[in-house]
Design a protein that fits this description.
CATH class of chain A: Alpha Beta
Oligomer: heterodimer
Distance between the termini of chain B: 29 Å
Distance between the termini of chain A: 26 Å
Shape of chain A: globular
Structural class of chain A: alpha/beta
Strand content of chain A: 5-15%
Helix content of chain A: 25-40%
CATH topology of chain A: Rossmann fold
Strand order of the largest sheet of chain A: 5-6-7
Order of helices and strands of chain A: EEHHEHEEHEHEHHH
Number of helices of chain A: 8
Number of domains of chain A: 1
CATH architecture of chain A: 3-Layer(aba) Sandwich
Structural class of chain B: mainly alpha
Largest sheet of chain A: 3 strands, parallel
Largest sheet of chain B: none
Strand content of chain B: under 5%
Number of helices of chain B: 11
Order of helices and strands of chain B: HHHHHHHHHHH
Helix content of chain B: 55-70%
Number of strands of chain B: 0
């Protein structure tokens, strides 16, 4: 974690109080039954992610990878200013739909998380949750220089610098901001990676789960969610 | 109705043809929409790739038995709707399991998938899914009213509950179609067609831009693949009923393809020129315009 300097890491050992809706409580049901509710235990699955094996036959896996490459569903989740470069992709000028790319409103149906620009620590929390809810195999694209080394937010007290420390990034698209053409070129490169079977970010995340969690927890001050939430 | 085992194979063939037809037709419709908007649009085989991709996803999460059964019920609704109605009139192979009272059964099957989906989406535990399902049920119920009335009207007109006999009565020229012999019932039923096709202006329930994405919020991978299959099968099955009841049926697959596409395009055309209704607006619309036309159809008959 060499990019996390002292001023950036969380400098306090103080425990932040849980938000009210996440505290354990007992609820009386209409029929008089008293139910104990611990939202952090009850509402989330606590199982750590698994490494998913590839298909037994190479030809089947190649076929699947071909389908995955030509059906990229992007999570409609914009983080920084880069989100504005993704909108023109849907419109007639760039029309990403012709490459099998479309936007899905829920992480359950998305395969590709585009971190579009700077990522503040607060948004990182949401990005992690969204990423962990996506079904495997899933891909992360870092858009803009902010995701590579912090970019113009290098000195910021509240944005992360290297996205790769927190989520397994498959591809970076450099620029500030990269234009939609660059995005399209990036998606084409991602397709090549997927077809070669090299985009195994989800498995990388599962293998190095402890390392990623340590990094995430070293910057997020109010960690009020389970370690793995889906 | 006599049953022979070969009918199962014939029925499977019908389902296979209809699913492929639906996969390609919905993609073509999307492509037409894109061309109207000045885009190039998706490849026509995109639906197949999406289907394979969703089946190929590695991690699947279940929220319980009903969550698993939801898409199964939905697909059952689509296949049931298709299989108890003659797809091709006069064909031994694609007569399916049509019997004397299949019109009533078809009305049930139109609703069956939505109810199954309500149970499944409810168990997913996501508030958006629960809200989406309650809105969807309210809207579909209101939209089905004119269809039910129109169905009563034409069963009175033809004095039968068998779709095969209704199709038989419409043979022998375009002016024998219910469209011309009973235009009011047809109009009432077309309200229901536009209302239940899940296209604009009545698609607030599943529209990705509204409460994200409604009932299927939690559905992914193979569950979603099942629902995608139903999304292409169900509109075609429903259009087959309309084709049989009001537009003279089809005596071969070419006629089937043309007629189903034309009827489907009605809801598409209405959709592209009208903005989306909220649920209470669409319910009010059906009660105000659809229902009186349906009652009028019964009175006229």
């Amino acid at each position: 974690m060499k990019d996390i300097d002292k001023s950036f890491r969380k400098d306090t050992e103080t425990e932040f109080p849980l938000r009210e809706e996440l505290r354990p409580r007992s609820v009386t049901a209409p029929d008089g039954q008293v139910i104990e509710i611990d939202p952090l235990q009850d509402y989330f699955c606590q199982e750590p992610p698994k490494v998913h094996k590839q298909s037994y036959f190479k030809i089947v896996e190649d076929f699947y990878n071909w389908a995955r490459a030509h059906s990229l569903w992007i999570l409609g989740f914009g983080t920084g200013c880069g989100a504005i470069e993704m909108r023109p992709l849907m419109t007639p000028r760039f029309d990403a739909y012709r490459y099998g790319i479309q936007w899905r409103p829920t992480p359950r149906q998305a395969n590709l998380l585009v971190i579009s620009g700077y990522l503040s620590v607060k948004t990182l929390k949401r990005a992690i949750r969204a990423y962990e809810q996506m079904p495997s195999p899933k891909y992360v694209v870092g858009l803009g220089s902010c995701t590579i080394n912090g970019g113009m937010y290098w000195d910021s007290y509240n944005t992360i610098k290297r996205l790769d420390d927190y989520l397994p990034v498959d591809l970076y698209i450099a620029g500030c901001m990269p234009r939609p053409e660059a995005l399209l070129a990036g998606f084409m490169d991602l397709k090549k990676l997927i077809r070669k079977g090299k985009a195994e970010g989800a498995n990388k995340y599962a293998e190095n789960f402890d390392w990623y969690k340590a990094n995430q927890k070293s910057v997020i001050k109010d960690w009020d969610m389970p370690d793995y939430n889906w | 109705m006599s049953f022979e085992w070969i009918q199962l194979a014939y029925a499977a063939l019908t389902v296979f043809i209809v699913i492929n037809y639906g996969l390609i037709m919905t993609a073509v419709v999307q492509k037409i929409g894109a061309r109207v908007g000045g885009r190039y649009g998706i490849p026509v085989w995109q639906n197949y790739i999406d289907l394979v991709k969703n089946i190929a996803l590695r991690s699947k999460i279940s929220h319980g038995v009903m969550f698993y059964l939801g898409p199964v019920f939905r697909l059952t609704g689509g296949i049931g709707l298709l299989l108890f109605v003659p797809t091709i009139y006069g064909s031994v192979m694609h007569q399916n399991f049509a019997f004397a009272g299949d019109l009533i059964l078809a009305l049930y099957f139109v609703f069956f998938g939505t109810l199954g989906m309500a149970l499944g989406a409810g168990e997913s535990g996501h508030p958006h899914a629960a809200i989406g399902v309650s809105r969807g049920l309210a809207q579909v119920t209101a939209a089905e009213l004119p269809l039910a009335l129109a169905v009563f009207a034409i069963s009175l007109q033809y004095q039968t509950l068998s779709i095969t006999e209704i199709v038989a009565a419409q043979q022998g020229g375009i002016f024998n179609w219910t469209l011309f012999t009973n235009p009011i019932a047809t109009l009432a039923a077309m309200f229901a067609l536009v209302g239940t096709m899940m296209r604009a202006p009545f698609d607030v329930v599943v529209a990705p831009q509204e409460i994200p994405i409604g009932p299927p919020t939690e559905y992914h991978s193979a569950y979603l693949a099942l629902m995608q299959t139903n999304r292409v099968l169900f509109p075609v099955a429903k259009t087959v009923i309309y084709m049989n009841l009001f537009f003279g049926g089809a005596s071969n697959w070419a006629e089937f393809a043309v007629k189903v596409f034309a009827i489907y395009m009605v809801s598409v055309l209405v959709g592209v020129v009208h903005p989306r209704f909220r649920v209470e607006q669409s319910i009010r619309f059906f009660l105000k315009w659809g229902l009186p036309v349906g009652i009028l159809a019964i009175l006229v008959v």
